[in-house]
Amino acid sequence: MKTHEFVMHGHKIIERWLEVPLDFRTESDPRTITFFSREFVRRGGEDRPLLVYLQGGPGTKGMRPANPASGWMDWALDRYRVIQIDQRGTGLSSPIDARYLSELSAEEGAAYLSHFRQDSIVADCEALRRALGAPPWTLVGQSFGGFCITAYLSLFPEGIERAAITGGLPHLGHIDDIYELTFAQAIRRNEQFEDVYPGSAETIRQVAQHISEVDEYLPTGEKLTVPRLRMSGLGLGMTAGFDSLHYLFEDPFAGSRGSSRRLSYSFLTDLAGVVSNAAAPLYALIHEFTYAGAGPAAAGKATQWSAQRLAQANFATDPSSAEPFYLSGEHFYREAFTEDPAMAGTVGAMDVLAEQTDFPLTYLPEVLNSNQVPVAAAVYQNDMFVPAPLSLETASQIQGIRVLHTNEFQHDGIRTRPTMVHDLLEMTY
User: Fold this and answer.
1) Which residues are catalytic?
2) How do 32-42 and 11-21 pair as beta strands?
3) What is the pLDDT of residue 317?
4) In terms of CATH, what superfamily is 2-170+362-427?
5) N or C: which end of the chain has fewer CB within 10 A?
6) What whole-number distance in Å separates Cα of residue 8 and Cα of residue 20?
7) Quick one: average pLDDT of 174-180?
8) pLDDT tens digits for 105-164?
């Protein structure tokens, strides 16, 4: 294992690069990838226990705090040594992009991507713990990080001292169950957005009508289409998302209001930053497949472009019709892979994965039912990404879990409630 140490704002930083199996389930497979982690140690805290943070996503690299003495980490570093990881396929952990996948056949690309789900991520974490000779450690997981913790509890419970999950108790069934609820919640958030910023819905509709008639291009080179415009609604599920979306659409047009009406370059640039997957390609690439094989109820069932199928009812309307025009949330349509230049050459692998039925089970109810690890979870009643009813069902399957069920926060409650991590970990004692 390669290591590198330095000091940042009075904290010792230990970076590690560990070679781990690409396929932890197949010992005969010789392929390996690199797993990167970064440990933060406050002065005088060299003997403190370890806490591993599993970030949301999927497909996003670990936090890169400019100053470790901020947010929940400031509290944690007085009690723990904190490890931030780059989940496999991101950051410094053998990152994946479309360029790499485009050099593979559709079948090869799909097979490779199938090794980057939460079961493999927690196998990497457990490999690191064993390489360090560390005792069971504390886990904190936000959103998809909570999915990872649930997989950890299923596959390697012996490696966990205690765990806290924020907005991330996963459904143990099929993805369609999730998207039926998240699409419904997205409609509610669209309507609430219009209540907060009246007139916004009409402005968004005008943009959609315009690009149905006039070719407009993002700075990335992508032709802006209505399905891609709909994908700008991710922020609807965040605390400050209404404000950000309002500013994005406050003045989208430039020039005259006549026949030469065009979208402004400023708007197109800002919109590209919202809908492009260039910064985190794996987020789009494996998103639906992190739900495949979630539990026995999902075993043997393909995802079959779930978002694409379930969007047809309310999120495929003609912007020139009288029907409401809604932005969607955390839903990836096939156009994300056929139209986004950052995803060029990946749709073949996506099609293969969408029909795959043999994903191994990610969560094991028989293990969770007899769980002995102290766990606490925050479930947000109005969560647009991780539906509360399904999270509460899962909580009923995890023996001993303590749940903070609240309507005070959106999906990013870990950021808006500074004491969230502390409060949840306290609930595990």
Assistant:
1) 143, 358, 411
2) antiparallel
3) 86
4) Alpha/Beta hydrolase fold, catalytic domain (3.40.50.1820)
5) C
6) 28
7) 98
8) 999 999 999 999 999 999 999 999 999 999 999 999 999 999 999 999 999 999 999 999
Cα separation, 234 vs 222, whole angstroms: 19
Amino acid code (one letter) for 28: S
In terms of DSSP bridges, do strands 375-380 and 160-166 run parallel, antiparallel, or are they unpaired?
A: parallel
Distances (CA, A) of 15 to 7, 36, 306: 11, 7, 39
**The two structure tokens encoding residue 381:** 């009643």
Residue at 373: amino acid letter:
V
Q: Is the pLDDT at 256 greater than 60, yes or no?
A: no
Bridge-partner residues for 223, per DSSP?
217
State the Cα–Cα distance between residues 11 and 53, nearest whole angstrom. Answer: 17
pTM higher than 0.90 = yes
Sequential DSSP letters for 118-185: HHHHHHHHHHHHHHHTPPPEEEEEETHHHHHHHHHHHH-GGGEEEEEEES----SS-HHHHHHHHHHH
Among candidate residues 89, 97, 98, the one with its CA nearest the CA of residue 121: 89
Whole-number Å distance between alpha carbons of 262 and 42: 53
312 φψ region: left (φ > 0), alpha (ψ -120 to 50), beta (else): alpha
Domain boundaries, the chain: 2-170+362-427, 184-284+318-354
Q: Comparing C-alpha atoms, which of 365, 350, 349, 360 is closest to residue 292?
A: 360
pLDDT tens digits, 268-307:
999 999 999 999 999 999 999 999 999 999 999 999 999 9
What are the pLDDT digits (tens) for 42-99?
999 999 999 999 999 999 999 999 888 888 999 999 999 999 999 999 999 999 999 9
Q: What are phi and psi of 295, to 5 degrees?
A: -160, -175
